[in-house]
Amino acid sequence: MRKVKKQSGFTLVEIAIVLVIIGLLLAGVLKGQELIESSRVKSMAKDLNGFSTMYTSYLDRYHGVPGDDLTATTHLERGWGATAFTAGDNTGLIGAGGAALIFPPAALSENLQAYQALRYAGFLSGNGSSILAPTSATGGAIGFTNKVFGFGAVNVVCFNNLNGKQAAALDLLLDDGVFNTGSVRSDTVIGTGAMTATATATVYSEAVTSGVILCKTL
C-alpha cells in the first residue's frame, strides 16, 4: 500500500503571526518617521523663536534694526570696524519689500546685511563678513524681509524649502494654523520667484510637497 506523502506548508496561525509581525514592523517604521518629522518641526519652531529673540536683543542693544541700522558702520566701540558693511537706510524695515526678495537674496542688501549685523553682534554664529543665509532643519534658507503675505510694513523672518505638512504643523504650533492670518503665514513660491504681497494659495496640504515659504513676524 502506497503511503500518502504529506505536503509541508504554513498553517493559518503561522501566516497570521507573520502578518502581525510585519504590521508591527511597519507601524514602528512609520512611527519613527513621524517622530523624526515632529522633531524637525520643533527644531524649526525653536529657530523661528530664536531669530525673534536675536532681533529684539539687537534692537535693545543698538537701538536699530539689524541690516537697516544707519549707524552700524560708524560705532567703532562695537568692535566691528568702520567698514564692516554698508549702513542701512534707517526706515525700520529690513529691505525694500518682500516683492523683491529672492531666496537667497540676489544682491547686497539690508536682507543680507541683517545676517552680518547679527553675526558681528554675536547673536548669530559665523564670521561677520559672511553674507551666507543661515539654514533651517529642512536645509532651506532663512531670510528677513517685510510687506509679504498680507503682513503689511512689519519685519518678518522666513523659511523656504518647506512642504505643506511641515508648514501647517509650524503654523499650528506657533500660531492659529491658518495660512493667511495671524503672526505666521505661508505661500507657495516656485523656484526662486519673488514672494507675493498677500498669501494667495491654500498650501497646508500633504499634496504640496515643496516650494512653501513660511514667515513669522519679528
Q: Topology, please?
A:
Elements: H1 12-62, H2 110-120, E1 142-146, E2 155-162, H3 164-174, E3 184-188, E4 212-217
Antiparallel strand pairs: 1-2, 2-4, 3-4
Helix pairs in contact: 1-3
Describe the structure concisely.
The chain has helices at residues 12-62, 110-120, 164-174; strands spanning 142-146, 155-162, 184-188, 212-217. The protein has 218 residues and is an alpha+beta fold.
Can you tell me about this structure?
The chain is α+β, with helices and mostly antiparallel strands and 218 residues long. It has one domain (14-217): TcpA-like pilin, CATH 3.30.1690. It contains three helices and four strands; from the N terminus they run H-H-E-E-H-E-E. The chain has helices spanning 12-62, 110-120, 164-174; strands spanning 142-146, 155-162, 184-188, 212-217. Strands 1-2-4-3 form a four-stranded antiparallel sheet. Helix 1 crosses helix 3 (164-174). The N and C termini lie far apart (91 Å).
Name of the top-level CATH class: Alpha Beta
Instruction: Give the fraction of residues assigned to helices.
Output: 25-40%
Instruction: Report the principal-axis shape.
Output: elongated
* Main sheet properties: 4 strands, antiparallel
Q: In the CATH hierarchy, what is the architecture at level 2?
A: 2-Layer Sandwich
C-alpha end-to-end distance: 91 Å
CATH topology: TcpA-like pilin
Widest sheet: strand order?
1-2-4-3
- Which structural category do the helix and sheet elements fall into? alpha+beta
Could you state the oligomeric state of the chains shown?
A: single chain
The radius of gyration computed from the alpha-carbon positions, rounded to a whole number of angstroms, is 25 Å
Average pLDDT: 80
Q: Figure out the total of helices.
A: 3
Helix/strand order, N-terminal first: HHEEHEE
Total domain units: 1
What is the count of β-strands? 4
The proportion of residues in beta strands is: 5-15%
